[in-house]
Amino acid sequence: MDGWRVLEQASELARRGEPFALATVVWRQGPSSSQQGSRAIITATGEFYGWIGGACAQPTVIREAHEVITDGTPRLLLLGSPGQFGQTVPDGMTVVPISCQSEGALEVYIEPVLPTPHLVVVGRSPMAQTLANLARTLGWRAELIAGQDFTSADAGERSMVVVATQGHGDEEAVEQAVAARPAYLGLVGSRRRGAAVLGYLAERGLPKDQLDRVRVPAGVDLGRTTHQEIAVAILAELVQLRALGALAADAGGDEAAAGAGSPATVIDPVCGMTVLAGPDGTPVEHDGLTYYFCSAGCRREFESNPAGFLKNPLPG
User: Quick one: CA torsion of 240, 242, 248, 254, rounded to 10 degrees?
Assistant: First the structure.
């Protein structure tokens, strides 16, 4: 997959709301299999698209990319032997020593691409319209859907859903929203009204653990306020929860998802590099254990004298 097709894939992932990191080679020192402008995508589930370099560079970039997705902060990597750079490394750059036999070096910029927050406001009241408009000013993707038109298909695990049907089909809207298992589900209404709605749904057999996640009343408690202030209070709660990482399925705060499908990495016992624990890691069986290597050269050295490299095993 060349650089332009990588960008097309990035656009498709963004459209689907999947978090990923985009890695771009901004400098290279030959010999190296990569070129300036080479790009790759690393998804939160461990998929890799594109080309960023060979066996020396790819495992390191994958590892760093998952950290970038998790903390949401871009980083600039300098990959090579420390002796190649001396005191010339600029501040803010992360140096990752690699023992590549080609003696090449790379500078790679890795940036997170996290999905735009998705808010679904169910209802057509003035408060619902105000809330959707306020969310859009933050750059969120906000949808306003009438209660009778809303179904569980309109939201997902990363969505935030606010049911503001104001007594017109509250039970049906909340039931549909619960089925979507969103990162946040709030009901606009009094505590008394909320208890009645949730009690009705409990009698219908909806699981208690799912109903317990419904926040009612939605938003920061401001007491008796105008509909505009209620909208502000709800948005304030959503912003606060996202900032705290409390929306477990939200792309910005789900560290478990970021690592769930990540390919396993281990340490090459010969050179100490991080390598992928898979077929591309040129595996070798020794005394019932499998070892992986950055290149055929390291593998040959290990096979010629395994005991010499396993006297002081490297952490993996």
Answer: -150
